[in-house]
Predict the 3D structure of the following.
Amino acid sequence: MTPVNPADVTPVSASEVTSWDHEADVVIAGYGVAGAAAAVEAAQAGAEVLVLERTGSWGGAAAMAGGFIYLGGGTPLQKACGFEDSVENMTAFLNVAMGPGADEHRIADYCAGSVAHFEWLVDCGVPFKAEFFGEPGWEPMGDQGLMYSGGENSYPFNTIATPAPRGHVPQMSDKKQGEASAGFMLMKPLVDTATAAGVRAVYDVRVQCLITESDGRVVGMRARRYGNEINVRARRGVVLATGSFAYNDAMVAQYAPRIAGRPAAAIEQHDGQAIRMAQALGADLAHMDATEVAIFIDPQQLVRGVLVNERGQRYVAEDTYPGRIGQLTLYHQNNTAYLIIDGDAQEEAMASLSPQMMMRPPTWVAETVADLEAEIGLPPGALQATVAAFNEGAARGEDPLLHKKAEWLRPIGSPVGAIDLRESTGGFTLGGLHTTLDAEVLHVNGEPIPGLFAAGRSTAGLAAWGYASGVSLGDGSFYGRRAGRSAAKG
């Protein structure tokens, strides 16, 4: 067999293929959440399905994730936990929270199908525990099934839509954040359901380029396995579901340079291969500059402190979604932030149920704010004015500047410390292939590329310049299903 050049994504004409190594009605690249959802739907629609997975096992980034699936509109889990929600309410929130440029038609479509999607996940065997987790945190500490995961109950979102928690988390005992999280309990039932429906998978296969007929229709993929070239035929459709481009240094430098050198929450296989393969056919892209940005500190500390920039000024409510704090810090505050927190608040945070993984000790400690300000090197008087204004409002139970919730308002006392959060952010990409609501990949001329479908982080999904935890697994599985159904139709 002939060795393959991994950099060459030039499409191959089907007339050049002398033999097919594998064949199926629907061929899916990638066995993460989008690929698994596509496989289930395509198989249940009567198609013979083959999944090509680059690694040695199913799972992708989803199996390593915290497991949040962003769902709402009145799911049975929301109702069981005592929360009211509606499609209109969820839509109002996402239209603002997903940032400038978010596709309102896609958001409306997703919200309208959200309850049915939750029920589909349950039918596939994904377990959810009807218990709400109300503490600040990156994810529930135990096996609770529902949590605020996008700052819905923080300002200004609580003035735009009635707050409702929409972070649905599969039930998993003995979780370890960052090691064994609930994403596994999302993936395993989906893969089991796919396997029971007759889906086949071939592992250690790296897709290389698309194979097309003379009329432009995609009819397969060329790939390599153990360094050798293989040709895989798709009788009805190809689904691309190989994840983002967060670990393709050249693409990040070109499209999202602010997160260059600071990838987070993705796996190294997220190298943009599917995006480049489709681009070689003229595929259109969207939101390639959009990113999610995490800030590496525990929310239990954030909510109890005051976050200031390099001028000693507050710029975001500390009790909002931490991902939003990360975005604002990296993109609008020169990636510079300091968390001002007193001794009592630090002790409270350390005593919380959060794992100690992201708890940060103070970088500087002083008896007075004036001394702390000098130690950090902030402009004279700036931090003192900020803390004085915050303390005055907190004593009244108010935060007139940023509207932090009253439960977290307490004057900052002494001793006081500052946690240095400069360069404490990391992100992953949100942009990708431009697709229709039926997961068809669009050519730059606005027409669907025949036979080609995509879902998950290789596409531009719900998020533009905003995010909420659970959106990637949510729209990846939702539109993965659409991709599978569409591909099965041929």
